[in-house]
Write a structure and sequence with these properties.
Radius of gyration: 24 Å
CATH superfamily of the largest domain: Tetrapyrrole methylase, N-terminal domain
Number of helices: 12
Helix content: 25-40%
Strand order of the largest sheet: 9-8-10-7-11
Shape: elongated
Largest sheet: 5 strands, parallel
Distance between the termini: 29 Å
CATH architecture of the largest domain: 3-Layer(aba) Sandwich
Number of strands: 11
CATH topology of the largest domain: Cobalt-precorrin-4 Transmethylase, domain 1
CATH class of the largest domain: Alpha Beta
Strand content: 15-25%
Structural class: alpha/beta
């Protein structure tokens, strides 16, 4: 990881955009509808330090490279993170390609090296994320305390929220009917809705790009990750970083069955022979599914 992604809260922030042209206009559009105070500074005032007083973030944009460098030098006196459009060598941070779903914000960056690549990745993800995802997250936030009280176990809570993301609650939120979504979610909490656990048996691929989408999702959602001998590190990195990790040598079918009985999801990454033996040992004691990689063309 060459760059660390971070999110700045915008409520109460002062965003200063200095300069002119499409670059400055694009940055202003980026913050349209946000709770931040956006201040546009024309080129004539961009070389005065007072223009940047109280700034939380600063953007400088101009077709004139000499002006951009001069304005950046003045802006640095404000002590706020600075981005100079099209000049990564003058910037403290790079503006990523952004997917905005309200409270759900995804950022794709290339450290300023190839913005077009970030834009293409964003386009791929945009098509896969429902428009109502932000409203669903808003509902989750509103009912967070109630959800934690009803489901104190973290794994059970994750399982419950996963179920909410693919059922009637999600459909109502996507349609913009937050009242119905809230009513349905409260009913599910009151009923003590539980989601059965599952053991995902993921065959180690020769290359990470041969993983199926279902396998990649199972890794991302797993409460526990079990790695067999020779499991590729670039596959394991797809799992949540906070998910506990175990070796297959230290894991037996009884442990996996117990995890599933508690509603947990476990992803086991190993070779086909080890997974076949594990599936036989699990039998009917736990729901499990074998996920093979795509053929290597």
């Amino acid at each position: 990881m060459d760059s660390f992604p971070a999110f700045y809260p915008l409520k109460g922030s002062r965003i200063v955009i200095a300069g002119d042209g499409e670059g400055a206009d694009a940055k202003a559009r980026l913050f349209a509808g946000s709770p931040a105070e956006v201040v546009r500074v024309e080129p004539g005032a961009a070389l005065e330090s007072a223009a940047y007083a109280g700034a939380s973030l600063i953007f400088v944009a101009s077709y004139d490279a000499d002006f951009a460098a001069a304005a950046a030098a003045v802006a640095r006196g404000a002590g706020a993170p600075l981005n100079v459009v099209d000049h990564p060598e003058l910037s403290d941070f790079h503006t990523p390609a952004i997917i905005d779903r309200g409270q759900v914000v995804a950022a794709i960056g290339t450290a300023g090296a190839a913005p077009i690549v970030a834009a293409l990745v964003r386009a791929e993800l945009e098509a896969k994320l429902p428009a109502g995802l932000g409203r669903l997250v808003e509902l989750f936030g509103k009912l967070r305390a109630e959800t934690r009280a009803a489901l104190p176990d973290l794994a059970q809570r994750r399982a419950f929220l996963r179920a909410m993301m693919s059922g009637a609650v999600a459909e109502a939120a996507d349609a913009g009917d937050l009242e119905a979504a809230e009513r349905l979610m409260r009913a599910a909490l009151a009923e003590g809705l539980t989601t059965p656990g599952v053991v995902w048996l993921i065959q180690t691929p020769k290359r990470r790009d041969l993983l199926s989408l279902l396998a990649a999702r199972a890794l991302a959602e797993a409460d526990t990750l079990v790695l067999g001998q020779g499991a590729a590190a670039d596959v394991a990195v797809l799992a949540r970083r906070d998910a506990p990790r175990r070796t297959l040598a230290d894991t037996d079918a009884a442990f996996l069955a117990d995890e599933a009985a508690q509603g947990r999801q476990t992803a086991v990454v190993a070779d086909s022979d080890a997974l076949a033996a594990l599936a036989l040992a699990l039998g009917a004691t736990a729901r499990h599914q074998m996920l093979a990689p795509a053929p290597d063309a």
